């Protein structure tokens, strides 16, 4: 009996994860307003009626998409944290962004485009949630600049993340993945050029 319950719990958990991943993917491709629960159910290969067991409204699915973006970001930064040098971690982040150039050219930055769309709504909530995901990224980047000994780590983090948002937007507007490659090279060169101030005796 316990095995059966455990199996059902695992199946439910896997189904929920599939729905979250599908929500993140479909909302990125279509936008929150154009996406329906049926679209997400189809992408997750879950019957539409089953979706309501996990998520009661489309907004809950959009929140789940944001949660999936946060999870993917934490997985990426967790891998990058294994690198011993903070500069290499930052360069690894840029490399990860550039590796998604075809997706960015077609749909833009997953979190940035969703944050811009949600900000146009009258009611607050999901736009704040999107801001939290971007804040996770900013905080991680800031920690890397601080570990490098760079003054103004918070401002440098905004510069780097802002450059990513800008190059994603331009790649999407121009439908040109090469924008990501070129700007990624510039960001990598910039990171290599940064020198912490000499310590005073």
Description:
There is one protein chain. This protein is 78% helix and 0% strand. The protein is globular. The chain contains 10 helices and no strands. The protein has 201 residues and is mainly α. It has helices spanning 2-30, 37-44, 48-54, 58-80, 86-99, 101-107, 110-118, 126-147, 153-174, 178-193. The mean pLDDT is 92.
Short structural description:
By secondary structure, this protein is mostly helical. Helix content is 78%, strand content 0%.
Q: What keywords describe this structure?
A:
single chain; 201 residues; mainly alpha; 10 helices
Shape: globular
Averaged pLDDT = 92
Radius of gyration: 19 Å
* Portion in strands: under 5%
* Biggest sheet architecture: none
Helix content: over 70%
In DSSP terms (H or I, runs of 4 or more residues), the helix count works out at 10
Give a topology summary.
Elements: H1 2-30, H2 37-44, H3 48-54, H4 58-80, H5 86-99, H6 101-107, H7 110-118, H8 126-147, H9 153-174, H10 178-193
